[in-house]
Amino acid sequence: MSAAPQPKPFKLPTPSDPSSYPHLRATLNGLTYTYIDVPPFDAQGVPLPDPTVQPTLLLVHGFPDLWYGWRHQIVPWAKRGWRVVVPSLTGYAGTDAPADIGRYSLKSVSSDLVALLDLLGLQRVILVGHDWGAATVWRMAQYHPDRVLGVAGLALPYLPPNKEYIPLEEIVKRRPNFNYQLYLADERNAEELERNISTFIHLLHRSPSASETQQPRQTHWSTPGTLDDSSRDSRFRSIRSDLLTPAEHAFYVQSFSRSRLLGPTSWYRTTHHRFLEEQAAGVPTHLPQGMPVLFVQPTKDFAIPEEMARGMEKFVKGEFRRVRLEGCGHWVMVERSEEVEREVAQWVEDVVLRKVEKREREKAKL
Q1: CA-to-CA distance for 209 and 213, rounded, in angstroms?
Q2: Longest dimension (CA), the chain
Q3: How many other C-beta atoms are found inside a 10 Å radius of the C-beta of residue 279?
């Protein structure tokens, strides 16, 4: 593992300028990762003296996203006095994209993130993940509970490990809204999507209203056949994201043009790896005892219907908070940027840090 690079002094980053963030690199378990490391500031934007003693949030993105998906939350959370670390996950934006599918499993990625914490001298952090990032932080909290103060998932609820192996094809039969995953799991389709990467980003980064009204198909990208058609039907090139500015769209296109899509889509080929690892590790059905849990649930996420989160509370053995974002689609950090920033921050302050303070008071009495 490489030595941790020291972030240079810098002004608060600007969400509209990706280059204003401190971009760092590190070798973690043999893979080169890129990540953002924003130190804590006070409310006036003055850096706090020692970032290592402040609470740290580890933000984990999903597909097809980047560290930049958290651009609206990074600075507000840093100005609350928290260090904010945001890696680009395996296969994305400058992080290595190995041929070994096993390196994209939730256990493997969790191990890499623990290596990043070790590198940065961080014992315990607050995990916040979206989409595949949510899947990652849920499992990381189970594989490495001693490194986690609290865990928050956005869009994707906690799902317990399966007791028997269910192939992706069978999962799709049971949940037709996951049909798009079969398309993405076929590595032959990555190159097809890359030829139309601009359209692909426009198509996926849309709100529910845009998905329902824009031609040529008034439907969401998770609807069977939409991704397949989008790479071949020129009419899809008229679609425009209503969530990304032209400059933000250009940044996503540039990033995925460089890193390609074979790595990011490899996550969809890990179903069997994940099952075997969870069985071998004896991952329990519930999250760790006493761990604070937050679930931010958009009510109009076509890819992840509300019913998937039904009964989630029975798998939580600590304080559980659920926040519903009525009418919100998949991209909660953009569609409801201020609400997500506020709700996560309130949970951190009211639940996670209060529990930490209580534990420290009890220690002091001993």
Answers
A1: 6
A2: 70
A3: 14
The DSSP code sequence of 85-145 is EEEPPTTSTTS---S-GGGGSHHHHHHHHHHHHHHHT-S-EEEEEETHHHHHHHHHHHH-G
Q: Between the CA atoms of 256, 260, 264 and 268, what dihedral angle is there, to the nearest 10 degrees?
A: 130
Q: How many C-beta atoms surround the C-beta of residue 247 within 10 A?
A: 10
Amino acid at 12: L
For residue 206, the tally of other CB atoms under 10 A from its CB is 25
Closest CA to 119 of 80, 152, 147: 147
21, 35 contact by CB (below 8 A): no
Report the alpha-carbon distance of residue 182 to residue 222 in Å, rounded. 11
CA 304, chain centre distance (Å): 14
Contact 100, 269 (CB under 8 A): no
Could you give the CA distance from residue 155 to residue 133 in angstroms, rounded to a whole number?
A: 10
In tens digits, the chain (366 residues) has pLDDT values of 666 655 555 688 999 999 999 999 999 999 999 999 999 998 888 888 776 678 999 999 999 999 999 999 999 999 999 999 999 999 999 999 999 999 999 999 999 999 999 999 999 999 999 999 999 999 999 999 999 999 999 999 999 999 999 999 999 999 888 889 999 999 999 999 999 999 999 999 999 988 777 766 556 777 777 887 887 777 788 889 999 999 999 999 999 999 999 999 999 999 999 999 999 999 999 999 999 999 999 999 988 989 999 999 999 999 999 999 999 999 999 999 999 999 999 999 999 999 988 888 887 877
User: 118: burial class by Cβ within 10 Å (0-12, 13-18, 19+)?
Assistant: middle
Please answer whether residues 296 and 325 qualify as being in contact, where contact means their C-beta atoms are separated by less than 8 angstroms.
yes
**Could you give the 3-state DSSP secondary structure of residue 324?**
strand
Question: SS3 of 38, please?
Answer: strand
